[in-house]
Amino acid sequence: MTLEVLVIALVRIAGSLPVLRWPLAGGILAILVDLSDLLLMNVLDLGGVPDYQRLDKVLDLAYMATFLIVALRWTGPDRWVSVALFGWRMIGFAAFELSGERALLVVFPNVFEPWFLLVALLHHRWDPVPWTRASLVGSMAGLLAVKEVQEWALHYARLFDGITALEAIDRAWRWLTGSP
Questions:
Q1: Can you say whether residue 109 is alpha, beta or left, with left for phi > 0 and alpha for psi between -120 and 50 degrees?
Q2: What percent of the chain is helix, strand and coil (3-state, nearest 5)?
Q3: End-to-end CA distance of the chain, in Å?
Q4: 96 with 57: CB under 8 angstroms?
């Protein structure tokens, strides 16, 4: 393990902990911190990260575990859907770890993450959330569609494998500002 891997791991774990006190704000922070490792790899020079995809999936367990701890405090669909989605992703995580095949992550998308954020957001108004069959199915369909596109782009098409986080930020900035 390099010092760079250790620094990234500590940042990711620390970024997961606020979820336990502030589910929505902490969840958003945890996801932003999850993305920060891409930037950290670009700016740190402490020995590198030998297998980023594996490291990322293992470190995802830190924020996912805190999300699950909070979700287990919920009741009804908030709780049982969370547990089912967490379990589904863990099956995908195990399959990925055993095979190293990133395309499996498209089959086992991390819908648990946006589901958690949605429920945490809804808990600001309702506790428990008044789910109907239609609202539950509609929410799940929407979240699944968004996550499938993301997982496909990241792990099947690998659209971002050839650029660094700094290059992505630069491209986004130029697109937003209309700069050449």
A1: beta
A2: 75, 0, 25
A3: 40
A4: yes
Q: Delimit the domains of the chain by residue range.
A: 3-177
Label residues 131-154 b or e (16+ Cβ within 10 Å = b).
beeeeeeebbeebeeebeebbbeb
Q: What is the DSSP letter of 153?
A: I
**pLDDT digits 0-9 by tens, 44-76:** 888 888 888 889 889 999 999 999 999 999 999
Closest to 40 measured CA to CA, from 63, 82, 10:
10
Which residue in 14, 16, 12 sits closest to 49, CA to CA? 12
pLDDT > 70 in the chain, percent: 100
Rounded distance between C-alpha atoms, residue 75 and residue 126, angstroms: 12
Q: In whole angstroms, what is the distance from residue 146 CA to residue 78 CA?
A: 19
Identity of residue 170: D
> Which candidate, 148, 65, 83, places its Cα nearest to that of 119?
83
Record the tokens describing residue 44, joined without a space.
């740190």
Q: Are 109 and 142 in contact (CB under 8 A)?
A: no
**pLDDT for position 128:** 84
Mean pLDDT calculated for residue range 108-136: 95
Amino acid at 153: A
